[in-house]
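Something for you to look into today, if you have time. Just paste the record in under my message, thanks.
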Amino acid sequence: MVNRYFHYLIFINILINVFMFIPSILLSERYKGALISMIIGIFIGTAILLLFVRSINNFRKQTIIDIIDLVPKWFRIVFLLFLVFLWFTAGMVTLLAFTNVTVRFLNPEMPSISMHLIFLGFIVFMLYTLKTEKILHTLEIILVLNVPFLLLILYQAYVNSYLSVNSILEAGTQLWEVPSLKAIAASSFVFSGYANLVVFNRAFDIPFKVKHLWYVPLVCAFALCTSFFIPIGMWGMDGVTDLTFPWIATADTFRIEYGPIERVISLFILTYISLSLISVIIHWHVAYEILKNLLKIRDRKIKAHRYGEITILTVFSGIVLVIEHFLRERQILRMGEMWLIFRLPGELLLLIVVLMIARRRLRGASLKQN
């Protein structure tokens, strides 16, 4: 498969983070080292991205399941279950967050549980019916359809007459504050689209060229600066304090005077519903495929295996519904923040494992040649 799909995995992760928890976390740390944390996060994210891609090139068309096949069985099981937890939680917090936003802004009278059931039904259907390659094709279609709208929204943000340069400059004065672990973890997550290669790598039959990733730090830096400075420019350093979803509130101030849709907020939410759905599908596909392998579910023609797949997806949905029932919006945001902090050492562990196995393979190949 053409390597452009790998770049799509990176882009969807960058785009979804503008809508998700990243702006909230960075803005909450605006007086506590958010800016220097963003810079550190960019360096950390870039380093992990380049090292991981260089290492994964040694395992063409292989998933993490194949890569760690030679390690001790106990470590393999624990490590794969850890990855299932990371990727399932990534999809879950995304789903919980954008469902709450959808209900609040598009249909406040609709029960939240009903909206969750609608989205879960669509996600489960896509996971059950689409293979890895088809999910990548779907991702491409969604990006092509939605990126023009996002560019329009960004244009509206940067040319808005209410955007205060003084507020942005005030935020810049906090550059040398002590960095925050929470903000570093949030900033580095913008780069994390590469990590989906733990399963999606099997769709690519040619190696990734590291030199073609030169644009990623630039785009991620732009995305972080946009998600951080635009709300501050619109609301002020103190005004952003009580905004749960800063970019939702910010987009609600934009207007297209002579456009078919005057309020940009409607366009913004509809765009991010589609982006959030495909993001959840990608994350859960990774967790789903790893869990199927652990449970030795391989042939859907076998009745027990087919029921096993349905059971996994039912459990995924059930966990989301239970958490949605017991947690309120602020608690969901807090859970998202905790997951982001937990994710960073998790990705470092993933990198170390892949890097060590890649080096062992290269060492073994060189010994054979000698």
User: Anything to note?
Assistant: The chain has a mean pLDDT of 88. The domain at 4-369 is CATH 1.20.1740 (Amino acid/polyamine transporter I). The chain has 15 helices and no strands. The chain has one domain: 4-369.
